[in-house]
Amino acid sequence: MMQLLPSHHHLWTTLAEQVAVPSAPRNSLYQSIQRRLQSHPAGEGGVWSILRQRADPTRYRPQRIEGVIEETLHEGNQQITVLRSPSGHYLRLSPAERELWHAMDGTKTVAQLATMGFVRFKQLLPVAGLVESLRSQGFLTDKPLGIYRHFRRHLEQRTAEGLGQRLLSLTHGRSFVITNVDRFFDLLYRWIGRWLFTLPFAVILGLLTVVGVICYFLPGVSGSELMSSDQFAFDVLMLGVALFLTLTLHELAHGLAVKHFGKQVPRAGIMLYFGMPAAFVDTSDIWLAPRHARILVSLAGPLCDLLIGSLAAIIAWSAPETVGGVWMRRIATASYLTALFNFNPLLELDGYFILVDALRLPNLRNRALAFIGGPLWQKIGARTALNREERIFAGYGLLSTLYTGVAVVMAILFWQRQFASMVAELWSGGLIGRLVAIVLFVLVVAPLLIGVVLAGWGAVRAITSWLVRRGYTRDPLFVASGFGVLAMTLGWLPLQFGLSVETGMLLMSLWIATVVVQWYLQRDYEGAWIGRALTNFFLISVIELIAQAGYLILPDAVRLWSGMEVAGYALLLFAGFVALLDVDLQQQRSSQLMASAVLLTLAFPAGTIAAELIRIAHPEYSALWALIAALPVYSGVIAQALLLPLLISLYDARLFWSWLLLWMGILFQIGSYLLELLPAWRNTPLTLALLVIAAGLWAAAWGTHLVTLRSISLIGLSWPLQAALGETTRLQDAFRHMYVGLYRLLRGNYGAQRTRTLDDRMDVLAATANWEVTFDRDQVRIGPTVLALPLDEQGARYAEILRYAVTILETLAGRTFARRAFLAAYDALPWPEREALDRHCLARLPWAHEISQAFGDAREARIRLLRQIELFATCEDHELQALAAAFAPQRVAAGEVILRAGEPPRGIWVIETGEILARNGDTVQELHRGDYFGELQGPEVTDCEYRASIESELLYLPPGELQRMLREAAPHTAEGAELLSRMRLLERTPLLADLPRAQLRELARHAERKTVAARQIIVRQGRPGGYLYVIASGQAAVLRQEETAQGPRGPARLVARLGVAEFFGEMELLRGTLPVATVVAITPLEVIAIPHHVVKQFILGGDHVTNRFEQISSGRLLELRAQG
């Protein structure tokens, strides 16, 4: 040990020597960066300036690509230029846009292009939009990245619609392209096609069409069958070949028409259209041709169909019994059908494009459907006359909607009467027939089913969104009625289809929907006793789904599936017992209990009668087996008797309707089961209808249950904003309102009996824990002992009480409802009470942290909303916080009137979400988020009626609170009102009318209002002024004297008179010289004075205001010279 000490001492000595020696300088990361920055100084403005310049769209320098083909067209009185890029994209430009396109050489910015367009064409051109269109279509050297488009596409692919679209793309829309076909169409047009576009051929075509249609409908042709029963599969295949040949000739006609007008056919090929191969020809180059050429190209295809069909019909009439005659009749049928569909303008085929070009209304279908979706009914309600374009939109949109409904009905009838029987006949026609049937199912039926499902899902989402926006989903009776009517309507389908695959698929779909909805509901009832009953109902639905799938897939194993249904009914009995344990029978009247007793009494004779009927219908059954078979009837009636007390306890609750639908569904299920056991009624349409109605009512019941829980009603949870004496009072009010909110939400959704249970349990807890707080229904009384506690101890006491209240809610209604109710009651609190509860209570509830965080986010969002409103533009941050706390949320239903015309405003409203229509006579203005109306808007508010078009959320400030805020909490709001009046005046000035609101706000912020007496000089010729003036009221005269070397001399001449919203003082700003005229007030004058250095910011920024200044000032200077 002693021998190791020297070495140990040597170690510390070495370390000390190394520390004492100064270390060599080391190159650190930050020193390296500093040296690089010193040796490579940043450019002017630094990196942020470069980033700002590159991110500024006005400084972007667009540069056009090479190889773009231009074609100038004259349509009516308009001149249009069509561009075609090397990649095959087309864009239509106006003459002004064409000039801008030629100026895009990479040297001019977007702002400079806008200035050039304004100076040359005396109008503001949408340069930014034009540049974006050119860039997205590949006409500029910069290629669009489309980051958000890729993100959106990636997210859509993860949805159900995205999966369906991917499956649909396997057999629909997939194309096989052949390029470099223009040479082929050139040769075809030179040898054949050019003779088809002559007047003699048009006459021949007309005669052939008339003769061919007559021949087609003659008995020898129209009376024969398209497909024979002997060679059914072969005939189906040949009919498909005939359709393919017809469509190929149809597309060739389009291509020849394009060549007739000297344009190119860049590509052609074959595409899959719902599994069926179809030829296509790219005719997009015809956009470089005039309108009549586009119409003829669209017309060429259907005319070719008529030609082919007529020739085939004439041949079929002349040789009806030959093989060629049969083939020609099939080709004629295919050609006439193709022509009929293509001439239909309500389908987006050739007839539609002919109509679009004839009316000069591009995108007609979408615009028409959008017009009848809203604006049409608003105009009808306002009794406003429709112009020509609107009449076309209305007529086409209504016809398209009607045609869509008719087409759906015809498709269903075709499936039922033709296609389904054709597939069945193919399946029974041997190996070839089965192969054809499989091909038809994979290529035609499956894509159609996917398309129908996607369309149905889209319609469901659209209808649901529409119902939610208008608040209909908050009415459980409306939801239950809709689902119930749908279930009863579906029961009509088995009366049409009978025992078929369609009926089996319908039953399976209904039970699948039931299982999915119940699976979602399982999570809502975690922690509640009634959740055990819902678990049993979920298992019953799963058993029914498996049984119905078994009946469809393995119909021979009837006993197995019947046994599963018996097990399901046994579970139904158990679910009824569990539900009964959740009901306090002591709270029910004797008459209500008597109804359950009567049903329990009827259960035994009902089961006995059912067993006897089964034994008579099945003599081979023993008495025991007959009793087992009748067990579901007995169990079902008992389950209904056990569920009746629960149903009665919910008579005043929103969930009553969902449980009523379930009770009715069990009743229909019992009846359908009994009829299924009787041979005379088994698989009859009536029995199948009862089965479908029962499944539909189960799905309707749980669907209504889910919608009701997801849309908690806030009726009765509106608390007035009252001035509180302090933080303690606000906390006490917040606690009372929170508990009352929880109580009322439980009562509204689950009825009075459960709220009585909540009241009783809270009374017991209050007495046991010595809370010194009493609960009497929706009344909360805080004892004097608690009122005397310090603020933090009161907060802890209230947090403890709320925690127990939420725990009891979880046992009564489930964890999800308890949390949703807590959040809803919290949202209903006035803003100051929320803040008090947030500070002193929610921090003590761990699971309420998210609510507290969400409240902070909502408060910041509300402050940001107020910051964007011009009225509060001058308010400080603490004033905005006070305003955010003072505004009370107000929810208005669709169609509700907030302020009527002629009424004095009673406060101020700010739109947070939704849409408000301001109607002044026939004029309707749409107000959205950030807009406001009310007391500070001015006296003209009484001329408008403000009505919510959809369910909207507003922020409301009462008049008394508004005046208090103006005096105390937010005095700068008055300055905001003055700022707003200046902005309104600047908006009325034609020079500044099109400025963005942000720039107008900055101008108004730097401006000042001045009052000038009559005959007082405002601007003196030859002396600097430094302001641009806008007249708010009064009149001014512009006077000019002769300019001499000594200054203005001689008599003053009147040059012009200026009135309201006109301006002066711009010459000094633009020319950089002294004023060239004198401006004198004729009457008492009120002006808005804007310093020149503020206006220069817009001029130096390349804004279009510069050009307006130059245009107006140049005109005025010319007038001065003319008069001088």
What does it look like?
By secondary structure, the protein is α+β, with helices and mostly antiparallel strands. The chain has 6 domains: 24-144, 2-Layer Sandwich (Enolase-like, domain 1), CATH 3.30.390; 180-360, no CATH class; 476-710, Up-down Bundle (Rhopdopsin 7-helix transmembrane proteins), CATH 1.20.1070; 727-846, no CATH class; 883-962, Jelly Rolls; 991-1123, Jelly Rolls (Sandwich), CATH 2.60.120. 62% of the residues lie in helices and 12% in strands. Strand 7 and strand 8 (779-782) form a beta hairpin. Helix 16 (364-372) packs across helix 18 and helix 29 (727-750) packs across helix 34. Residues 1-12, 21-28, 937-941 and 1099-1104 have low confidence and may be disordered.
Quick gist of this model?
The chain has 1124 residues and is α+β, with helices and mostly antiparallel strands.
- CATH class division of the largest domain: Mainly Alpha
Helical content class: 55-70%
Query: How many independent structural domains?
Result: 6
Structural class: alpha+beta
Specify the CATH architecture of the largest domain: Up-down Bundle
- CATH T-level fold name of the largest domain: Rhopdopsin 7-helix transmembrane proteins
Number of strands: 24
What is the helix tally? 42
